[in-house]
Amino acid sequence: MREAVVDTALALLINTPLNFAFIAFAFHVDMSALETSVWLTFIFTVLAVMRKYWLRMKFYKKYG
User: pLDDT tens digits for the chain (64 residues)?
Assistant: First the structure.
């Protein structure tokens, strides 16, 4: 349970400012809604996998 809460809190802290920045960038370069959606989905999926792997390793080292 602790790992899930920490992961969700980290995701909120990381993704919220990134989302604002990426949306601003998408508007700046005139991306369509579809392009923006695909681009953000890809970026946030990659970041989620990296974050979850890193956090899983931290919890594994600490709690075995």
Answer: 898 999 999 999 999 999 999 999 999 999 999 999 999 999 999 999 999 999 999 999 988 7
Give the whole-angstrom CA distance, residue 32 versus residue 36.
Answer: 6
* CA 8, 20, 26, 50 torsion-angle sign: negative
Structure-block tokens of residue 21: 């920045």
CA 27 → CA 36, 37, 43, 47, 63, distances in Å?
9, 12, 16, 21, 44
pTM over 0.70: yes
